[in-house]
Amino acid sequence: MTVQLSGGYGGSQDWLALAATTAANTSYLQWTYVGANVTTRTWTVNMPTTSGTYEFRLFLNNGYTLAAKSPTVTVTSGGGGGGGGGSTQLTVPPPTTVAPGASVTVTLTGGLGGSTDWLALAAVGAADTSKLQWTYVGAGVTTRNWTVTMPTTPGFYEFRFYPNNGYTRTATSPTVTVQSSPLPTLSVNATTVAPGASVTVTLAGGYGGSQDWLALASTSAVNTTYLQWTYVGAGMTTRSWTVTMPTATGTYEFRLFLNNGYTRAAVSPTVTVSP
């Protein structure tokens, strides 16, 4: 199920949640940040297997101020026949981050065996009617390997399973990231500044992850220690960020981290704060 946000506020800590319609604002099942300065965003989730009514919600500034909610989405129990409902799976072996044009194999298990059941490769967040490559599974086939050549465009992709020549998605694979080449870079507009001066860092060749983030840190600091930070923004591969440097003299650097974690993907030239 894909929800689309439009007219967002662009706050670096605004976030989307999936929750039961009866749940309090502090209770949710899945969530994601929208992204700094991002006002339009799509987010695709696998709905719960428990029947009931659900909705997507927009909250502001890492809090529980409800700014918008979607129409109700009803999850109904599956019909009879075939058994093993909900057992259809698509898996991708590691690594799930690959180079442009690499070969990736998806494995279908627990298929339905329909003669017109089919697999698709699509961009994450794309409508179910949008696909990059596709193939029929095969009549009576419930387990199938399918190897594709990934796009040359960096981004986030997934495999999908659809029964009976339709667009009702029954299974979705883990995300496959096509890594940009060359690697991301961080440049700065000054390498020696006075205490409290402004410095602008520019990211080029980013990955566009919705939770990729930039940090300012001392050059000697570990990855988990930083002074200022901001999200890059979903789908954004180029970004400028201006900060007020510390008043304490020393050497500092900007860092790019991926997926809300501490995997450092790029580091800027050293910025020296000097009297």
Put simply, the count of helices is 0
Class by helix and strand content?
mainly beta
Gap from first CA to last CA: 55 Å
Overall spatial form = globular
Order of helices and strands: EEEEEEEEEEEEEEEEEEEEEEEEE
Mean pLDDT: 88
The CATH class name of the largest domain reads: Mainly Beta
Provide the number of structural domains: 3
CATH superfamily of the largest domain: Immunoglobulins
Tell me the fraction of residues in β-strands, as a range: 35-45%
Provide structural commentary:
The protein has 275 residues and is mainly beta. The relative contact order is 0.14. It has three domains: 2-75, Immunoglobulin-like, CATH 2.60.40; 89-178, Sandwich (Immunoglobulin-like), CATH 2.60.40; 185-273, Immunoglobulin-like, CATH 2.60.40.2840. The chain is globular and about 75 Å long. Helices cover 0% and strands 44% of the residues. It starts with a strand and ends with a strand. The protein contains no helices and 25 strands.
